[in-house]
Amino acid sequence: MAEYIIRRTLQMIVVFFIFLVSSYLLFNAIPGNAFSNLLLNPDLPPDAYEKVLATYGLDKPIMERVQLYVVNFFKGDFGYSYKYYPKTPIELIAERLPRTLMLFAIVNIVAFYTGFLVGKVLAWRRGSKSETWITVTSVFSYTVFYPWFALMMLWFFGYKMGWFPIGKFLYPEKWYTAPWDSDVIFVLMIKFTAIISIIQFIAYIMTRGIESLSQRRNLRFASLLTIAVGSYFFWNTGDALTKKPYAADIAYHMILPVIVVTIVAFAGTALLTRTTMVEVIKEDYILTARAKGLSQKRIRDRHAARTALLPVVTSFIFTIVTIIDGSVLTETIFSWPGMGQLLLQSVLEEDIPVAMATFSFVGVFALIAHLVADISYSYLDPRIRIKSQG
Amino acid sequence: MSKEVLVVDGLNMHYETLDGLVQAVKDVSFTLKQGESFGLVGESGCGKTSVAMSLLQLQPDNAKISSGSIKLDGIELVGMTEKELRTVRWDGISIVFQGAMNAWNPVAKIGEQIREAIREHRPDNSKDENTEKITELFNIVGLDSSVMDRYPHELSGGMKQRAMIALALSCDPKVVIADEPTTALDVVIQDQILKELKKVQELLGLSLIYISHDIAVIAEMTNNMAVMYAGSIVELGPTKDVFSKPKHAYTRLLLESTPSVVGEKKKLRSLDGEPPSLIDEKKGCSFSPRCPAPSKECKNQELEMKLIEVVKGHYADQCCVECG
Fold first, then answer.
1. What's this model's pTM, rounded to 2 decimal places?
2. Between A and B, how many CB-CB pairs are < 8 A?
3. Whole-complex ipTM
4. Is A285 within 8 Å of B106 when comparing Cβ atoms?
5. Angle, to 10 degrees, between the axis of helix A352-380 and the axis of helix A309-320?
6. Which end of chain B, N or C, is less surrounded by CB atoms within 10 Å?
7. What digits encode the pLDDT tens for the residues A10-55?
């Protein structure tokens, strides 16, 4: 196992190197540069443009710049933003990342979970009327033109009904007197969510070995209850109490994007789960499970859905990268200034250091996500063994 | 006389297909006594497995039990709700499936899959009690207790089938159905599994229903047996009698088609024709089209199929008895 991880890591470094060089070259292949518009200013002395270029090292030949960039990258120096000088790309990412992370972590988990849930019910009720209708709905939401759908939802729920805010992640008027930056609140919310998930996960693992099913269920319910009570006290005491209204403001802004993206994204998972599970249901061990006198729900969840999980997790890993890069479309439509928008802006303005840093950050995350996926396969399906050779 | 555990009376089961109703089980009746081993033999597609599935009511959704009764310890199983059936399954009647290869869930450990069954029917057992029970069962079927922590793909076919027998015994069922438990195994392993099954049956005094197309296995394994043809039982009686003095033409031909290891070499006989389609309801003896010496009554389908007692405890279909 350790050998496998090391081998994969070495491979990843090679892949990442190729990724880095080729994306740098591609960004530089865009005609012009970030300072081209200086040429349009008649008040500037003729040599000013060249001077600016020399300051940023843009007068050097491209191959030399690539070399320099890659060497500096591995030293941990990502340069400065052309547009927001003297901010570094890292500072910009640090500001944007929590916003994207919070929104898209929730979107991904909710969409995956609903998708899997709907998918397994669909496969289980194969041939019934409800199955037909839900499948048709899922195919609709899977194939609908997403920007149009998102705008329609914004128009209806945001404008027509006025239930949810139209865009932005906060009401600026509420934050004039706020003693904190929005990032502080975002980081607090992320920490809170992460801790809850970890506690619940640990509770799940710990109760797994308990023989009595009813006891197992009760303990899990108790842990949920503890978390609920715990979070109530957390948000109503001390430091968090003063931050609560701001956190609530952000959470309120998150509702509509989460719902819209979930509606669009759950369908893929649901249809995939359904297809895989319909195959699994025909297997002999489902008959064994029925003969054992297990309840329908247990056969569905423990036997059929569990075995059908693998392809579903694969597809989930492909979408999980959006936790980091957000989705340019989603962030643009909901005016959510996160990583996706940062990426888009920096590319449009040819702010190459920022674009490169954002891009590489996403790349590293994607590579790690795939490694984690490969390793998790061997836990999901014991027939898959990770061999050191091969 | 020992107690009757399972009484099947006039069981009829059909599949609803696009081509029409398929009468898979026609008027099947038999009795299983405590500690007895009962064999069900017949060619492929004659309805053996359909009978087994009807007993547990595990048939696919398009299958319906149209009439008849199945009584387990005096409790009627036909017409039970799904919830009531769940308590009967495995606790009352358990089954060893044909082809143990696919009868295990590939992603769960063997021990966990057995534990799951015990948990369902004995919810108050502690973990140690269950582990002890499984170890004990593994001892009986000749498996090491470490098999509990293995996944199905790590076991050989024979081991899987042994574990399957342990699984079938896990809730101390009143009746165990063995549905061609040795089909997918090679001959040596088949022999081992059969011996194991016989040993277990004698040791625990199990009431066993053994389903097979292999008449030799039935001879070795069972006290009483029934021969099925085209969905109905054509001959029923003590295994010894059926083998020594077969009353039905089909049984005779079935016996003649099996090679014997001892005795003089004989040419094996085979039967012309195909088993009849079960879709259209035919009157009269279903075997008459293939019968080597059908009588006039058989040909004209004047006689209804019905078991009659020929010798005490030995029944055969009246059509064939009539024609001699």
1. 0.80
2. 86
3. 0.84
4. yes
5. 170
6. N
7. 999 999 999 999 999 998 888 877 777 777 777 888 788 888 888 7
